[in-house]
Amino acid sequence: MPLGEKPQQAGLFDTDIDNLKLNLAEVRHQYFSAKTLKTKRKYREQDRQLRQQMLETLKQSGISPAGETSMKKVVDWDLYNQNSQSDWFDPRMDVWG
Prior knowledge:
The protein is an all-alpha fold. The protein has helices at residues 8-33, 37-60, 65-76.
């Protein structure tokens, strides 16, 4: 395989991750547009599930142990809890891309 070329399988995982990122963006948009607490809770749960799916997809793609640890921190972080802290957050970093 030429240098810099990704294996075909990585392309499949990239597509899966891209789809999950789009779904996550839509769920977050819906969350912030929701009017009731019940609806907001539903979207919070969907958000959590999508982040977990992203982690599982990355694990299947052969992500490094360090990358898996970092992604687990992102998955476990509660975006919706204003008191939640993270030791990994960098405002200059695009978390999902």
